[in-house]
Amino acid sequence: MPRASHLLRGLVLCVFLVSAFGSVDAAPTAQQPTPRRGGVLRSAELGGAPRLLHPYPEAQQYTSPWVDAATLMWAGLIDLDYDTLDYLVDPRTSMATQMPTISNDGRTFTFTLRDDIVWSDRRPITSADFQFAWDNASKEENNWVGYDSTVDRIESFRTPDPLTVEVTLKEQLARFLAIGIAAGIGPVPRHVWEGRPWLDPQGNPEVLKPSVVSGPYLPREISAAGHSYTRNPNWWGAPPYLDEIVFIAASPTTTLELLRTRQVDWAHNFPPAQFEDAKRIPHANVFDWSSASGSYRVMDFNLARPLLADKRVREALSRAVDRADLVQLEEDLAVPQFGIYPQASRWGPANVEPYNLDLARARRLLDDAGYSLQGGVRRDRAGQPVRVEIIWPTTSQPRGKIATYLQQQWRELGIDTQVTGLEFNSFVDRQQRQKDFDVVMATWGGSLDPDSAYSIFKTGGTQNSTGYSNPRVDELFDRGATEQDDVRRKQIYDEIQLILLDDLPMYPMITMKSFTAIDRRIGGVFPRKGDDILRDNNAQFMNWFIAE
Amino acid sequence: MRQFLIRRLIQSALLLFVLMTFTFALTRLTPGGPEAVLFEQPNMGAVDIERLRERFGLNDPLPLAYWKWISSAIRLDFGRSYQYLRPPLDVMGERLWPTLQLELVAYCIALLGIPLGIIAAMNRARLPDVVIRIFTVFGSAVPGWWLALVIIVIMSATIGWFPYGEGREGPIDWFTHIILPATMLGLGGIVAFTRFVRSQVLEVIEQDYVRTARAKGLPELLPSWPTGRRSLIARLRLAANLSVSTVILRHILRNALLPVVTLLGGLLPALISGAVIMEGIFNWPGMGRLYLEAAGTRDYPLLLAITTMATLATLLGTLFADILYGYVDPRVRYG
Amino acid sequence: MVDPRTSVTVAEDGLVTATVSDAKKAPAPSDVGRSQGIYARAWAKLRRDPVSVAAALVLGLIVLVTLLAPVIADSVLQTSPERIMRTPNGRIAALQPPGPGYPLGTDDLGRDVLTRLLYAGRVSLTIGFTVALVSIVVGTFAGMVAGYFGGWVDDVVNAAVQFVFNIPGLFVLILLAVLFRPDVLMLSLIFGFFFWPATARQVRGVVLSVRALDYVTAARALGASNGRIMLRHILPNVANIVMVVAGLDVAAAILGESALSFLGFGVQVPQSSWGNMLSGSQDMFRKAPWLVYPPGVMIFLTVLCVVLLADGLRDAFDPRV
């Protein structure tokens, strides 16, 4: 699974927010052929096919292919603009008439639905469909993956009339965060789903493949080989050009080969090592860009270990790393990362200490900390050689590469490093449950809102593998979640980053760039600041067309 | 025969039971579990992990969990897959037909080893034999999956196409899409068949009674591969001399049936295990990939269902093969 | 039961094939005195077979070179398998084609491919030979006691053999690789676990035919202990078939390790084996073919030699040819 361990967009960017064409959808190239309707887009990708297409899946089914599918099938109340990185209402794809009105106490958001929105079977979409969805998704036993981030923060969900949805949050949260949560519940066709079991594909075939959707495309076929979508004839929004979109599950060797031999039009994702090779395909447009919700690689230190409890040791280990090397190892498809938010995001840039490469300083720090070099080997005061174990998940080979690099760099410091590759589930177990490691190769990120990082850094956070605990940081995260003023909010998270990079429980390394390769015959394709050109790209896929 | 069958069935049942217990124990001994996927979600709480473990019965004491599983597994009820939310047998059933096609075609290709072995043996130490032996030795030395990848890259680079996935548009399309993966899969089979049949035929040729038959003047099957500038028709006519029923022919074929039967018995479990690697390379939507995904996500119900059914298939396949041996080889008698 | 010559195994691609050892009949059994003659005769025949000789030489060369890998790396190549090399401008010398300084180029971490190839050979060959060792030690012991003592001992061994045969091999292999740390020792044990029953079966067949011979009965009548009989009379006859089986096991283990690496299990970086070098380079066919073909060729060559040698051994011991 690609990027297995990152926060998949924190569900604040719930897939019900299908972005609009955008108010201005300027194509960057000088001449674009005239778009025409029709055609099939075939795509090859790693990651397999979705297990089922339930609009409210459990964690087990919430995979990258599922998110692709949901982007095509379900519309949202409002949309996210990846240029301004803020929410907006687009008359062509949003179900709400305007941005929600907010109550005085800032906790209740009232959306007014358009009166012309219909399901794919022509029945009108009303607030009753929203209520039906909420009634089911809010039940704990239905295991919705968004339960904690959305349901748990909503106090009440009311639909006083067929065109009004009223969401009250438990507390007043920062505007961007709050709107995302309030708009996070999308409708489910009640007239089809009522009376059928919510999570049982046998009792409810809609769970496997919905027959009635609210978005521009209907699912046609879903199997182990891939999934395909066909135009929704009753789509109420602006019509897309493409008739059909087909996703084919492929392997690392074959994804790009399929594009090269024109058996597909789009290599959605492929191994970074093949990027240079992709650029040599004459009929392909190859893009790479930094996204605002990109994932970054980081090494977490286990603060419970005596060796690593000393910040000097942590700094020494960090100063043995040259980020330029890491960028090169990632095939130059990465940029250095200094804080805990990607540089391309609104929250990223902060004046934190970069801990650049400085082997001499690293050696001095280790000496100061009491670990002296004896015969080429670092030993503690008792004479025991210093040993560090790095664990990494074997599903992510790049992390193994970085770990091997670290092993070599730390050898320069006289430290003996063991690199342990673990199967993914065992890895998570050792990282999070047992906390049995010295250094762990992690990947964080993937969210547009800074609040979602709290589970990594707050005291006792469920994703806090380092054991970090700082009451000031806890307090700042709490304040950041509720701060109404954007400028002050940025300051809060700046301070968090400063403190974190000062305490150095983890060392951020590089943020991965997004990249893809698509046949030139597909027109209208260009990336924005989103992570993926299909789903984080202002619904640009509706602008894509076959240009022969 | 009946006694033999009953004894074997009891043995098989016992064996199945032991194996089911064994694989169940394996899954419970593992560090980590299906809750790993929860850690990817922000805002997830410890209570969610507990809830998941409760829901999947992972906190039950081992004997209780085992009893719950085995008592329903006996009735072929394996619960619900964590990923698919459907009964594992349903999910497996969908993948069965593609795997069946692949295995059957691979088996047919493997059967080509029989005539190859015969030709090699009849032409011992001459060119056909050398060529065939080189082929079998090379075929058994190269990693099959790697060969498949090399062929894909070569095909992609030269003819700008390679077979990917199932061919849906008509029989020709189907054939072109299945032939490469099936050949790669059947490579091991061809090699095994060729070697075995060759040695069998060689052995037969040396037998005394063959010498007797020759002394008596009975014609052999293929006196020698036609050398010189004989026409293709003439060769075929010679080869078609199969209608001449000789002692040799009967004995050869009877002995050649042994690996045929063994492989047939192996076909059933192969269906379940589904060429894991080849399916991944050629994007064949079969059982093999299903198992890999189940292992990767710790989908215990699906995992256990697949291993149980695979074991069952192996037992049945071996039993089936053994029964067939009884008919094919008169020396084998079951009391 | 079933013809003991045929055994069904699960090949690494999941296809169940008949790994029919063409050791059709066991070579004519004999007592110790004459068995010396058999060995001498076999050795002479082997020496005269050019293919076997060539295979043995190449195999020996491969083993020698990999054994000496540290020496070669230090003195001849002056590299190490782990050192990340750099270009003059300070960047990592990643994916350099073969050239001065790196005879086979560098990998994606700027390490010398040739050195890594040699060290990887140690891992792969260790796995291969260890697996064969486990298989013949356990298998010979099990087959001998089963065939010699018969009765309940035979039943127990037979039950164990059936148990392992009927495990859906690839699945449990994956499961075990997932659950246990895939280091070299563990992998060898796991593979060995799946390989020993075939050996046991072969050995048992031989023992059964030897046991009934006159001189064995005579030895027993003279009061020789069971152990002595097994060791001096039966074991020599078993040895030749075991050699052939061992060879096939080595080959199967090396191929199996590469398949396991392809699936993502098996030996993990930074430790290198031919299998994981091969699978780790599978998306580099166009970009860096020097990463792709050397490990493949090494695996192929090694397995080829082992198989040819095993074939040659079998033919050498064949009394009829």
Plain-language structure description:
The complex is a heterotrimer of chains A (548), B (335) and C (321). Chain A has helices spanning 64-73, 127-137, 175-182, 190-193, 254-260, 275-279, 306-309, 311-319, 323-329, 359-368, 397-412, 424-434, 454-457, 471-482, 486-503, and strands at 40-45, 79-81, 86-88, 101-102, 108-112, 154-158, 164-169, 217-223, 226-231, 244-249, 266-267, 284-289, 295-301, 334-336, 372-374, 377-379, 387-393, 416-422, 439-445, 506-512, 514-519, 522-523, 545-546. Chain A is of the alpha+beta class and 548 residues long. Chain A has two domains: 4-207 and 515-546, Alpha-Beta Complex (Dipeptide-binding Protein, domain 1), CATH 3.90.76.10; 296-512, Roll (Dipeptide-binding Protein, domain 3), CATH 3.10.105. In chain A, helix 14 runs antiparallel to helix 15. The longest helix of chain A is centred in the last third of the chain and has 18 residues, at 486-503. With 335 residues, chain B is mainly alpha-helical. Chain B has a single domain (89-335), classed as MetI-like fold (Orthogonal Bundle), CATH 1.10.3720. Helices cover 72% and strands 0% of the residues of chain B. Chain B is built from 14 helices and no strands. Residues 221-230 and 240-245 of chain B have low confidence and may be disordered. Chain C has helices at 32-48, 50-67, 69-77, 113-149, 151-166, 169-179, 184-211, 214-221, 226-262, 274-280, 289-317, and strands spanning 8-10, 16-18. The chains are: A alpha+beta (548), B mainly alpha (335), C mainly alpha (321). Chain A binds chain C through residues 252-253, 270-271, 273-274, 276-277, 324-325, 328-329, 394-395, 397, 400-401, 403-405, 407-408, 419-423, 425-426, and chain C through 82-84, 91-92, 94, 108-109, 177-179, 181, 264-265, 268-270, 280, 282-287.
Main attributes?
heterotrimer, A: 548 residues, alpha+beta, Dipeptide-binding Protein, domain 1, Dipeptide-binding Protein, domain 3, 7-stranded mixed β-sheet, 6-stranded mixed β-sheet, 15 helices, 25% helix, disordered N terminus, C: 321 residues, mainly alpha, two-stranded antiparallel ribbon, 2 strands, 2% strand
Write the layout of secondary structure elements.
The complex is a heterotrimer of chains A (548), B (335) and C (321).
Chain A: E1 40-45, H1 64-73, E2 79-81, E3 86-88, E4 101-102, E5 108-112, H2 127-137, E6 154-158, E7 164-169, H3 175-182, H4 190-193, E8 217-223, E9 226-231, E10 244-249, H5 254-260, E11 266-267, H6 275-279, E12 284-289, E13 295-301, H7 306-309, H8 311-319, H9 323-329, E14 334-336, H10 359-368, E15 372-374, E16 377-379, E17 387-393, H11 397-412, E18 416-422, H12 424-434, E19 439-445, H13 454-457, H14 471-482, H15 486-503, E20 506-512, E21 514-519, E22 522-523, E23 545-546
Parallel strand pairs in A: 1-10, 1-11, 17-18, 17-19
Antiparallel strand pairs in A: 2-3, 4-5, 5-7, 6-7, 8-9, 9-10, 11-21, 12-21, 13-19, 13-20, 14-20, 15-16, 22-23
Helix pairs in contact in A: 8-10, 14-15
Chain B: H1 2-28, H2 46-55, H3 62-73, H4 88-111, H5 113-122, H6 127-141, H7 144-158, H8 170-206, H9 208-216, H10 232-239, H11 247-273, H12 276-282, H13 287-296, H14 300-328
Helix pairs in contact in B: 1-14, 4-8, 4-11, 5-6, 5-8, 6-8, 7-8, 8-11, 11-14, 12-13
Chain C: E1 8-10, E2 16-18, H1 32-48, H2 50-67, H3 69-77, H4 113-149, H5 151-166, H6 169-179, H7 184-211, H8 214-221, H9 226-262, H10 274-280, H11 289-317
Antiparallel strand pairs in C: 1-2
Helix pairs in contact in C: 1-11, 2-4, 2-11, 3-4, 4-5, 4-7, 4-9, 5-7, 6-7, 7-9, 9-10, 9-11, 10-11
